[in-house]
Amino acid sequence: MIAEIHLFGSQGYRWVLDADIEACFDRIDHAALMDRVRMRVKDKRVLALVKAFLKAGIMTELGERNQTSSGTPQGGVLSPLLANIALSVLDDFAAEHWETAMATRWDRERRRQHGLGTWRLVRYADDFVVMVHGTRGHVEQLRGQVSEVLAPMGLALSLVKTRIVHLADGFDFLGFRIVRRRKRGTDKWHVYTFIADKPVASLKRKIKALTQRLSHLDYKIALIQINRVLRGWANYFKHAVAKHTLQRLHTFVWWRVIRWVMHRHRMTWTAVRRWLRDPNGHWKPIELDGITLFDLGRVPITRYRYRGNSILSPWPEALDGPIPTA
Prior knowledge:
Elements: H1 2-9, E1 15-20, H2 24-27, H3 30-38, H4 44-54, E2 58-59, E3 65-66, H5 79-101, H6 105-113, E4 118-124, E5 127-133, H7 136-150, E6 163-166, E7 171-173, E8 176-182, E9 189-195, H8 197-210, H9 219-237, H10 243-265, H11 269-276, E10 287-288, E11 291-292
Antiparallel strand pairs: 1-5, 1-6, 2-3, 4-5, 7-8, 8-9, 10-11
Helix pairs in contact: 3-4, 8-9, 8-10
């Protein structure tokens, strides 16, 4: 997804419809959703199970059962899949326009010569953006078309959170901050991906919760949990321009752990230096109960690489006719 945005942003797609669907899981129309499920699933027993899941209702905190006439239960095992099926209307809309009006380079250039914009949809679950090669007016027109596509599914774009932005101003997508800017010391412009502010703040809150002064967690358990959080976070964001951010976060985590240990053992700073300095005066990694604190600052940064349709699918191609039996 991020690699696609990089590719399109470097090819003139500078205007962005940063879309947000209002209460996506709560407003999906059941009848419209079941119609889309029936397009691929013919087994009536499976259809009955899906419909029963949608109509199962929600249990409140008071133990009361509320009926659901629309939406998919948040937290349900089928909800992400059903929401994705509902939003496939966007994929069909984008594919139809691309194949009929923008399939070739000549088609796209001819549209632009006639004052029409070209665009590409980038979607991950209910988060999506539309990259537009054209003007702000083209994006505003496209926003209306997207709203019309979503309406039959009972969905609508949020008036507050849906924005039209230029790539030079940047936007947040899937936890990343994506912006086009001039490379320092040159006249060349590039699309850069940074870590957005919200994921950084969220990580700090988690680390603070695990290193509170009143926490009675064993060091081994605490460090295992901290390392799990840090490794997962780093593996997700290591493709961004994040080296300095990761180093700053490692410093933050290091001080949180040190102060936590100092508080629990009434240690002085001199004692900490004696504990963590080697004979040559270099700082050693923090190790408690045989567990070493994960170092975010040493995580290697690797850039996204756009692979288009060259990503091999692990699933076999669909078979025409009945499935062969042994």
